[in-house]
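Subject: sequence -> structure tokens, single chain

Hey, anyone have a minute? Need the predicted structure for the following. Not urgent.
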Amino acid sequence: MVERLARIGHFGTFAGRVLWRSVTPPWELDSFLTQLWALWWRCLLPVLATTTPLGMVMALQGLQIFDLYGAQRLLSPLVSVATFRELSPVLASVLVAAQGGSSFAAELGAMRIREELDATEVMGIDAIRVHVVPRFLAAVVATPLLNLAGSLGGLQPDLPGFGGKASAAFVLPAGLDPALVGLTAHHAFVSLGFLSGQVNFVSNAIPVIFQP
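Reply:
Had a minute. Here:
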């Protein structure tokens, strides 16, 4: 029990030293940028590989459920809110901690075995400021950037296309009451395929003929 408490105390002391050196100069800017670039490319593909399929699955499954209640227009808000608030932040943080944190721990452990950290301290250089702080700050900065990339990847199945615009027209049934024309246009829901380029139309008011 005492040994566990001692380990917690050592970790707290180490964390405090890292935080203090993170906010006080001098900063190792070159090392920070190098670690940030490496961490970004190391974690970008895993983040996109997890958030993009989840966004697709949510869109496909949610559309089937919302179609039962005629609430297809609520699908995009559901996917966007869930991706921005929940899925992308959690997955990006976990992958940075798993992928980036494990690689940083392995690098620092190898430095300790090869006595590089001891040699740095013998030369009068702060090993924590030179080796630990740049990696810590790189993880702090890379996490929101990867969160943004994961959010865009998760929302990609719902985006209308690279141009963001589409034009279409629909024909109302013959003999329709003019009062229902505005209601039909107001409740019209247009779904644009991102990759296929196909345009689907869903109307919650009355059936219409869609002409892309």
